[in-house]
Amino acid sequence: MIRLGTSDLEVSPLCLGGTVLGWTADEQRSTAVLDAYTEAGGNFLDTADMYSSWVPGHSGGESEETIGRWMQLRGNRDGLVVATKVGKMPGLQGTSSSVTARAVEDSLRRLRTDRIDLYYVHFDDTAVPVEETLSGLDTLVRQGKVRYVGASNFTADRLAESLAASDRNGWVRYVAVQQEYNLLHRTEFESGMASVLAEHGLSNVPHTALAKGFLTGKYRPGLTVDSHRAADNESRLDARGLAVLAALDRIADAHRTTVAAVALAWLAAQPSTASPIASARRVEQLADLLPVAELRLTGTELESLSAAGSVPAR
């Protein structure tokens, strides 16, 4: 298990993303994936109140509801670290104290629990002063509805400003961030956010850890993949994408493991990374991710992957 930032939360090396639960994974598949993940030793679930509000006929909250029904069915809430987010739910957007006070009650109800272990603000709401957001979150922690808070999709400067405001006022402090970070998307995180996390002892729980599926290795020149992300990922088959795939293939073969596990292992080895987030619609997809828990790459292998990810795109 891995200590999450400055909290006392102990999380597994792979965080199971809940974006697909209640969306492309129906109730039966969601239950099977959640069961397989916990049976393999996983304990860290990530969701958001607005998942899957973008789907026609959905209003948001479907992922939280799916997880809530499963936890009630299995009676395993106390063995899990549950993270959700506030700020992007249709009709309940932003990070003002009034929004977070209402949104947390809805999330608790959908999750069928009395507390949220890690409550992220889903984005940096620049229309709201950081003091108001943090004051509202502090109230939720003092009420026992939330254990710890995190920041998602922030800039380094705004994170530093928020941490300073917490220290100044004696309010709850962010313990973790959730930023996009993977072998193909590095500059934004490494050029600023990484140093703030190191200075303050915070963890990153990277989202889009597999670059929307590209780093699973299923996208290759000449192959057609049936996915709503196919067009985006086919555009990644440039010089850099092909160099990364070649390095992943070579290292996966050496360890007799999956390309996805190698990509996640590189990410897990980076400073400040706690537990990369990855989703699975089926148990078979989850099986490709789980080896990351035991996979340790050599220094040479890590350097090789980093170098491949630095190849110019064209």
Automatic annotation (TrEMBL):
One of its GO terms (cellular component) is cytosol. Residues 13-306 form the NADP-dependent oxidoreductase domain. One of its GO terms (molecular function) is oxidoreductase activity. Keywords: Oxidoreductase. It holds the Pfam family Aldo_ket_red. Transmembrane segments: none annotated. InterPro entries: AKR (IPR020471), AKR_Detox_Biosynth (IPR050523), NAD(P)_OxRdtase_dom_sf (IPR036812), NADP_OxRdtase_dom (IPR023210). This is NADP-dependent aryl-alcohol dehydrogenase. It comes from Nakamurella endophytica. The lineage of its organism: Bacteria, Bacillati, Actinomycetota, Actinomycetes, Nakamurellales.
